[in-house]
Amino acid sequence: MSHKIAIIGLGYVGLPLAVEFSKKYKVVGFDINKSRVEELNTGHDHTLEVSDENLAQVLNTGNQEGLTLTDNSDDIVEANIYIVTVPTPVDRNNRPILTPLIKASETVGEILKPKDIVIYESTVYPGVTEDECVPILEKYSGLIFNKDFFCGYSPERINPGDKTHTVANIKKVTSGSTPETGKIVDDLYKSIIIAGTHLAPTLKVAEASKVIENAQRDVNIAFVNELAIIFNKLGIDTHDVLAAAATKWNFLYFKPGLVGGHCIGVDPFYLAQKAQEVGYHSEIILAGRRLNDSMGEYVATEILKLMVLSDITVKKAKVLMLGITFKENCPDIRNTKAIDIYKSLGQYVMNVDVYDPWADRDEVINEYGIDMISNIVKQYDVIVHVVAHKEYEGLDFKTIKKDNGVIYDVKGTLNKNIIDKRL
Fold it and tell me: Which residues are tagged catalytic?
């Protein structure tokens, strides 16, 4: 089979995948966001998941392989493999939003041809591909599933900001709607994934494997966050406890902190929702979610206590938040829990400045209504180390903190001698 690949969605998942495939195949990347396509066609990716150099190497090469980017669905009609990598968020009530997935399926369905394969990478609960996406593909194409066209599911394993665990270096789970399709899908990914692949027996198994990866991590972090709350009340440093416990060979080392982003802070809700549909109310998964979602407010309360003990007037206090992205050395602000600290401190009428050299200023304004500062030019009553960006390592905290000011280290990575408290 001669593969002509179309990637639907050019975000944190789709673009790196498109670039990797385009080193061996002719690939067309499609996104409905015209400005995103225009940006990428200039050779720059603002998410920084693909460097300008790597993008230039594959973009519009005119060779047998290479990458073409477009916002016109007419440009992907000749593909025989469609890989859907659109986001799957939740609404304000933490219910799954399948709209991007549905719209992408409609787009593909309108141009689907006999023998084509549609592979989904978007994180979903078990059954979404067959129960939600396939009927749309059939409706818009007029074709019959597993007779005229076929499906695969291969969950994304992108770790934003991680330049070590890139697409090719992370083992990939694959699956197909028939054994033959599974073999084709597995061989396709095997051709670009250095770390190898794992062929799951069914689409549902592959879907479930992805959603529990993040749910497991979420629950583990929730456990450590609960320990941090307990040890704080006992006057014990949580990080010292973890360092001691980690000397045992089978201890799982997780640090307390904020759990945001588009995966760990979202995906467990997909599994919980599906469980509820079949009559089971999740206990551990949702308990972990509740605890992790409460940590921003908990941190703000701890900062407030620290201020009172240090005789710092709370109202109109000058506060510096270091970081707004959901993780270190990454520009991604999606579902960042740093905003919870910002809002909680704001309720006490504090003047909070946010400094984050990784986050896009306009994006932060549009998403959260926060106008970040571009430089630190004054002293603060409180400094909150929220995200461990490498740029903060060289900060002279003595010069930006008032004499009676305090430093709260959410990440637990600053020198213990310069901070007043850490999570």
Answer: 263
Q: Could you tell me which residue, 76 or 60, shows the higher pLDDT?
A: 76
Reported as a single tens digit per residue, the pLDDT across 158-211 is 777 777 778 888 999 999 999 999 999 999 999 999 999 999 999 999 999 999
262 DSSP assignment = T
What's the N-to-C CA distance of the chain in angstroms? Answer: 54
Helices and strands of the chain, counted as H and E runs: 15, 13
**The tokens of 123 are what?**
């994180």
Quote the pLDDT of residue 263: 79
Q: Check: CB of residue 370 under 8 Å from CB of residue 336.
A: no
Cα–Cα dist 288/274, whole Å: 17
Angle between the 284-293 and 295-309 helix axes, to the nearest 10 degrees? 40
Q: pTM for the full model?
A: 0.91
225 to 40, 230, 256, 263, 292: CA distances (angstroms): 39, 9, 5, 18, 7
Tokens representing 94 are: 């933490």
Q: How far is CA 186 from CA 132, 136, 194, 303, in A?
A: 23, 24, 13, 50
How many residues would you count in the chain? 423
Distance of CA 121 to the CA centre of its chain: 13
Handedness of CA 63, 66, 72, 73 (dihedral sign): positive
- 348-382 as b/e, with b when 16 or more CB fall inside 10 Å? bebebbbbbebbbeeebeeebebebeeebeeebbb
pLDDT attached to residue 372: 96
Q: Distance between CA atoms of 74 and 374, rounded to whole angstroms?
A: 42
Task: State how far the Cα of 362 lies from the Cα of 370, in Å rounded to an integer.
Answer: 9
Beta bridge mates, 28: 6, 68
Q: What is the H or E stretch that residue 124 is in?
A: none
What is d(CA 209, CA 157) in angstroms, rounded to the nearest whole number? 11
Main-chain dihedrals φ then ψ at residue 374, nearest 5 degrees: -95, -20
